[in-house]
Amino acid sequence: MLAVTDRHGHPRPLVETVQAILDGGGCWIWFRDKDLEPDARRRLGTRVAECVRAMNGVLTIGGDVALARALGADGVHLGGGSGRAAIAAARAALGEAALIGVSAHAPREAATAAKAGADYVTLSPIYATASKPGYGPALGLKGITDSCGAGLPVVALGGLGPEAIGSCRAAGAAGFAIMGGLMRAEDPAGATRALLKAWSAAEAS
Asked: Which fold has domain 2-204?
């Protein structure tokens, strides 16, 4: 599970939400919050990184290779359309072991990211999402299946909850990403446990 941050999702401080997700069994955090000014983003990112590091989790930074390097993050998530040069530059800055992801919104974009050297793609939106209304069209399960033909892990994103996780896994998703469902949750730890339980049940079925 990839938990995507959004400090606007709840009045609770973002660091508290991240800690709750980690306490609930989540281990991969994508620090997004790209609307912050650089200094403020780095300060908040430092606190998020401390939480993730203390729990031996994995930290990905959205769209900022320099910040990812400064925070000692495990990788960076690049925007859609990022090509071979951008991916190579990120890997050179962060090391060969860095996890480089790219956003994709269609199977052909997943194929392009694979050829450019990405390690994984997030594919969105699988379903209509309250976090980004009107962001589409929704790709559905066929979008996952078609994107898996690119030959790299596909992380499903958009409009997902426990009831949809199993079908995404059955369609070939290597993982799933959640933003609003965790950021808006009154109990992020409980929400995390429910999502992970649904994913594990899909494996057993």
From this structure: TIM Barrel (3.20.20)
Name the residue type at position 122.
T
Q: Could you tell me the residue ranges of all domains in the chain?
A: 2-204
Burial of 89 (0-12, 13-18, 19+ CB in 10 A): middle
Going residue by residue through the chain, which has 205 residues, state the pLDDT in tens, using 9 for 90 and above. 999 999 999 999 999 999 999 999 999 999 999 999 999 999 999 999 999 999 999 999 999 999 999 999 999 999 998 999 999 999 999 999 999 999 999 999 999 999 999 999 999 999 987 665 555 689 999 999 999 999 999 999 999 999 999 999 999 999 999 999 999 999 999 999 999 999 999 875 5
DSSP symbols for 50-98: HHHHHTT-EEEEES-HHHHHHHT-SEEEEPTT--HHHHHHHHHHH-TT-
| Gap between the Cα atoms of 72 and 74, Å rounded | 7
Stretch (H or E) spanning 112? helix 107-116
